[in-house]
Amino acid sequence: MTDKDSHRSIWSHLLRTPFKQDWVDAGGVSTRYIQAGPADAPKVVMIHGTSSSWEAFCATIESHAKHFNCYALDLVGCGFSDKPDKPYEIPVYVEHVRAFMDALGIQHASLIGVSLGAWVAGRFAVTYPERVDRMTLLATSGMVVNKETMNRTKGVRGNAVDDPSWENIERVFDSILFDKKDRIDDLVMVRQTIYRQPGIKTAMNNVLVLQEPEVRERNLVTEDEWRTVKAPLLIWLAPDDNPDYLVTGKRIAEVAPDARTVEVTGVKHWTHFERPDIFDRVNIAFLKGEDVQP
User: pTM of this prediction?
Assistant: First the structure.
């Protein structure tokens, strides 16, 4: 007999949580998002990684919605949001997040960003500091140009849209999740559905421009820019992930005025998904302005 408690799915994480999924016009981009939590609670905006979707935060929403008004969106060109045919450099994502917040009347919020989402959050905080309360960064990106990492990202994502077989989609998660048991069928199915959409190859080419060295270089958030970020930062470090993200996270923690780190082993990009027992407790305390105790 299968232990039902061991069955993990996107839906199992949302069963006990009042939420809504909807689309909103964010600066002309029809934007898919999920919202959960009391309307009068402090707001949190969750920003996913490269060519992902709000489901990346499925394991985070229930816990955080008990304390915050949570929003997780599909970035422009990603998930089931619109995919206008133009290169998606970091300012494009930043303006999309700003337009999303404007459309929903979010004057300021804490940001949770994963990988590309952490990069976007950093640039957002530099551009719109008055709109950022606190920031949680996982698989922190946007300070390193590593051709090997970029080529691998282009190859895996390109293969997945050229041939969105179950096997090719599973490979996308090789760099995201440490433990194969966490690569649940729901996540593969959602990503496969996204990668089977009409026009997805053009959209993916627009997403992957940041994997070109000269494009990436001009989009980096520099150390001097991180020094201007006054919002408190919580940076999650994963020694078992690609070292690019460990190096970036540690360096930002050294130069940003108000930063602290938490190190977790046995995870890759998605500490919040692989170790919600640690992430939820520590991150909620941080977002509430309490002492962070790993």
Answer: 0.96
